[in-house]
Amino acid sequence: MHVHVADHPLISHKLTVLRDERTDSPTFRRLADELVTLLAYEATRDVRVDPVTVQTPVAEARGVRLSTPQPLVVPILRAGLGMLEGMQRLLPTAEVGFLGMVRNEETLEATTYAERLPDDLARRQCYVLDPMLATGGTLSAAIEFLVQRGADHITAVTLLAAPEGIARVEADLADIGVPVTLVTAGLDERLNDKGYIVPGLGDAGDRLYGVVG
Ligand SMILES: O=P(O)(O)OC[C@H]1O[C@H](OP(=O)(O)OP(=O)(O)O)[C@H](O)[C@@H]1O
Ligand SMILES: O=c1cc[nH]c(=O)[nH]1
Ligand SMILES: [Mg+2]
């Protein structure tokens, strides 16, 4: 997996405010949205385009346009939903599919509780959105699912990642056979004994949408 850690003072600034436990939910949602738009610029560096020619008022100009089929953006519910609008701002014509996944906080195993994706993802570039890559169980399972459906190019966009999670995804996907890139705003130190990213930002879903039982 190719890992790109964003290195930009605006991203670092916004990430620092996001981490702060005093940051309230509306501000957290706005910052997550802004961060994703900044990350989307890097994440779409490999987006597929076709050559086209347009007529300007002066002459013909050669350019490009997004290839068909359009990329598929896949937010992983719940927390990934907080990244969707930020991504759509740069990729407004992308289709959107949904994966609902939750991590058991005792076993740290991820399960899928909802799926709304095209049946056939052949030749599709997929952008997976999830703010947190912790143990990596969720992201691994999501990518395996998309590749089984035919996706041939995967970019995961996260706000934070832990080294243990990156290592797990790399091991799980060693034979996946499609290019996988991770673009993240921050690479943190480690996981704690509850599987939370340290220093992290806490529970991203709860900070975006509130605590559910
Ligand atoms: O790398 P992992 O160890 O699998 O953990 C990361 C996952 O945990 C969080 O989701 P959570 O299960 O809390 O669901 P939520 O988005 O509904 O809050 C987060 O948004 C990731 O999906
Ligand atoms: O630190 C973490 C780990 C998993 N999920 C979160 O929301 N935060
Ligand atoms: Mg959560």
UniProtKB/TrEMBL annotation:
The keyword Kinase does not apply. The keyword Membrane does not apply. It comes from the Bacteria. Uracil binds at I197, G202, D203, A204. It catalyses: UMP + diphosphate = 5-phospho-alpha-D-ribose 1-diphosphate + uracil. Its EC number is 2.4.2.9. GO terms for molecular function: GTP binding; magnesium ion binding; uracil phosphoribosyltransferase activity. Its cofactor is Mg(2+). Keywords: Allosteric enzyme, Glycosyltransferase, GTP-binding, Magnesium, Nucleotide-binding, Transferase. GO terms for biological process: UMP salvage; uracil salvage. Residues 5-210 form the Phosphoribosyltransferase domain. Pfam families: UPRTase (PF14681). Binds 1 Mg(2+) ion per subunit. The magnesium is bound as Mg-PRPP. One of its GO terms (cellular component) is cytoplasm. 5-phospho-alpha-D-ribose 1-diphosphate binds at R78, R103, D130, P131, M132, L133, A134, T135, G136, G137, T138, D203. Allosterically activated by GTP. Pathway: Pyrimidine metabolism; UMP biosynthesis via salvage pathway; UMP from uracil: step 1/1. Catalyzes the conversion of uracil and 5-phospho-alpha-D-ribose 1-diphosphate (PRPP) to UMP and diphosphate. Belongs to the UPRTase family. This is Uracil phosphoribosyltransferase. It comes from Aeromicrobium terrae.
